[in-house]
Amino acid sequence: MLFDELDLNPELMESIDYMGFRETTPIQEKAIPVILSGSDLIGCAQTGTGKTAAYLLPIINFILGSRPSHTHTLVLVPTRELAIQIDQQIQGLAYMLNITSLAVYGGGDGSGWDQEKTALSKGADIIVATPGRLISHLNQGYVKFNQIEVLVLDEADRMLDIGFYDDIMHIISYLPKKRQTLMFSATMPPKIRSMSKHIMKNPVEIALEMSKPADGVIQAVYKLSDNQKLPLIKSLIADNPDYHSILIFSSTKKKLSEIVRALRSNSYLVQGISSDLEQRDREETLLRFKSRKTRVLVATDVLSRGIDIKDIDLVINFDVPSDAEDYVHRVGRTARAETTGAAITLINKMDMQKMERIEKLIGYKVYNAPLPSFIAEMHEKSPERHPSSRKPDKGKFKRRKATGYRQPPSR
Fold first, then answer.
1. Which strand ranges, in their side-by-side order, compose the sheet holding 314-317?
2. Pairing mode, if any, of strands 217-223 and 341-347?
3. Residue 381: predicted pLDDT
């Protein structure tokens, strides 16, 4: 569907055209008319499918139509990174529309508190907030949410996983009962449905291809021992100079530091990002990676969801995610918006069952790539041995990539 087929404000259509958007994504095509009708909505779609614009566009359309003098919309998100990202997207869409927004999140040096207080007490069109920081403001008594018209819970499943249920319900107690509630999630666990019964009225449900990596992702796994992981990653980076943006996920901060030290190079920049960094440092690190000044970014789970970093060439799971859904979100960092990308997962003997759960979830076996010969030779020195019937073939994965190898869909 084309955006001009939707019943959107002409001023908003000018902004959409200015940003180069022409066609809606499936979630946008289905969700925007529902939201414009005023109905509550539960939208379930994978990372990178345009969920944020699916709710922002109709919300901005509402604001343009009524120009309220109070805060119109509250968006709750699980992380400060996602709060910043959504606020930036609002600013991009509403650049020429005189619509105000503010991201409210903790973890910084505290310099933004007064600005947040002003916006929350005097009103901004859209507030994007993490639950903990917002509750700190609510406890001070000056927050004016009595005229909120729309509540959005973005990455709702992640917020519940983190343990924000009580915080969310506490925040909702400050909102009018008569409002529109929109819930967006990548998955639909029972606790999401349970929450929806308490906070929503006859919600329309939209579910699109849950728990499936995008078609453009070339997936592969390497079965190996822990001492082979770093040599393999170095080899993959060296053999693929056309990969300008590489994201590596590690399960622990300690491993993250080890990976960064091992991959440091004179020819390209490697950086790590975790919750240990101050907010300003984290934002600067992300900016360098987005602008491709940093070629390799090593991250803990803080980046597995909700970060809009486009055109990542390669995602590497240094460790197999414990949660099968997290695999989909990590892999979703590449091949976004119909581009292509590669995702590699390194599996030791202890992680075999985790990978089996992932393959059960996505509905097919991920391609088992043979180790390069010099990496396979290290296998004999490792106590964790994985017999393989394939002959080692360095570059096999690269050739598969070049010929357009795609994992077949589940039957």
1. 217-223, 341-347, 314-317, 246-249, 296-299, 270-273
2. parallel
3. 52
Q: Where are the alpha helices (DSSP H) in 94-189?
A: 113-122, 131-138, 156-162, 165-172
Identify the band that residue 167 occupies on the pLDDT scale cut at 50, 70 and 90: very high
Over range 301-322, report the average pLDDT: 76
| CB-side neighbour CA atoms (13 Å) of 96 | 10
In degrees and rounded to multiples of 5, residue 37 shows phi and psi of -75, -15
| Type and span of the H or E element at 29 | helix 26-36
- The C-alpha atoms of residue 136 and residue 406 are separated, in whole angstroms, by 48
Return the ∠ at Cα 237 (arms to 309 and 256), rounded to 5°.
Answer: 65
Print the SS3 string covering 339-366.
CCEEEEEEECHHHHHHHHHHHHHHCCCC
Count Cα neighbours of 407 within 13 Å in the Cβ-side half-sphere: 27
Name residue 347's beta-bridge partners: 223
Whether 313 contacts 333, CB under 8 Å: no
Specify whether the CB–CB gap between 133 and 106 falls below 8 A.
yes
Beta strand extents in 38-154 (DSSP E only)? 41-45, 73-76, 101-104, 126-129, 150-153
- Beta strand pairing call for 314-317 and 341-347: parallel
pLDDT at 403: 37
Of 224, 213, 257, 258, the residue nearest 381 (C-alpha): 224
What number is the average pLDDT over the span 349-365?
89
DSSP symbol at 192: H
Residue 32: per-residue pLDDT? 96
Burial label for 287, CB within 10 Å (0-12, 13-18, 19+), is exposed
Structural domains in the chain, CATH included, are 3-208 (3.40.50.300), 217-401 (3.40.50.300)
pLDDT, mean over the chain: 84
What's the pLDDT score for residue 305? 57
